[in-house]
């Protein structure tokens, strides 16, 4: 099995992509690149069994409905001063599930800068669909939405403070912690890049998260949640430890 992890930024710069090959007793990082274009992601996806995209695949349904109603002047029932009303506009169903499961509050695709990456993702998903990939926003096809911070949390690794100006955890140390927690993961010649770039590191985590989704070791939407998740997207939150990724192949599920 080959999984692809993409840490998607708004532009090619800061977009990272990792390819991980899965063997019975180990996983090998076969490629790790920065400044990746949409075309390169689509081409690499042709060879992958599962592609983990670190980016929201859709917007909250109430937010979309509000924008549509506002466009035509049909907004009649709002609670602009209500925090709960605004929260429903800002966060997707899957964001709330991640919050309940991990206490991590995902960035809002409706009210935060991550929307710029999501704008790009719309075009990327269209390109992937045109290339023949099953773009099921629930993750049932080749493409699945992942969230490295939540995956790291589930795997007992530091998930805050390793990127940005307020960095208080060196992501180079996080690479060391990952290698100790997953001795079966071979970074090879790409270890230095992982230690230098948190974008590269996140793309490797996205590829590991994609493996969890591919083998049935990630949270899936219930039948009731699936209708909304098919529109808003669904984060494939791992359900168990890192060792599941090697030991749990019996739960393997398909892609396209």
UniProtKB/TrEMBL annotation:
- InterPro entries cross-referenced by the UniProt entry: DUF429 (IPR007362)
Taken from the record, one Pfam family name reads: DUF429
Name used for this protein in its record? Nuclease with RNAse H fold
Native species: Plantactinospora soyae
């Amino acid at each position: 099995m080959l999984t692809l992890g993409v840490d998607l930024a708004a532009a090619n710069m800061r977009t990272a992509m990792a390819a991980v090959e899965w063997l019975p007793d180990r996983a090998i990082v076969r490629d790790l690149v920065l400044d990746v274009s949409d075309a390169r992601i689509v081409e690499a996806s042709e060879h992958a069994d599962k592609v983990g995209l670190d980016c929201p695949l859709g917007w909250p349904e109430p937010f979309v409905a509000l924008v549509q109603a506002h466009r035509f002047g049909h907004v009649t029932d709002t609670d602009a001063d209500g925090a709960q009303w605004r929260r429903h506009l800002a966060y997707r169903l899957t964001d709330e599930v991640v919050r309940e499961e991990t206490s991590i509050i995902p960035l809002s695709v409706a009210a935060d800068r991550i929307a710029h990456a999501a704008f790009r993702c719309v075009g990327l998903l269209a390109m992937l669909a045109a290339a023949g990939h099953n773009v099921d926003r629930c993750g049932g096809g080749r493409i699945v939405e992942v969230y490295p911070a939540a995956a790291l949390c589930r795997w007992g690794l530091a998930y805050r403070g390793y990127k940005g100006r307020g960095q208080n955890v060196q992501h180079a140390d996080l690479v060391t912690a990952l290698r100790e927690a997953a001795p079966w993961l071979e970074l090879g010649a790409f270890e230095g890049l992982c230690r230098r770039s948190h974008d590269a590191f996140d793309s490797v985590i996205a590829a590991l998260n994609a493996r969890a989704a591919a083998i049935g070791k990630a949270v899936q939407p219930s039948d009731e949640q699936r209708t909304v998740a098919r529109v808003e997207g669904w984060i494939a939150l791992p359900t168990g430890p890192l060792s599941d990724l090697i030991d749990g192949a019996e739960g393997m599920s398909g892609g396209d």
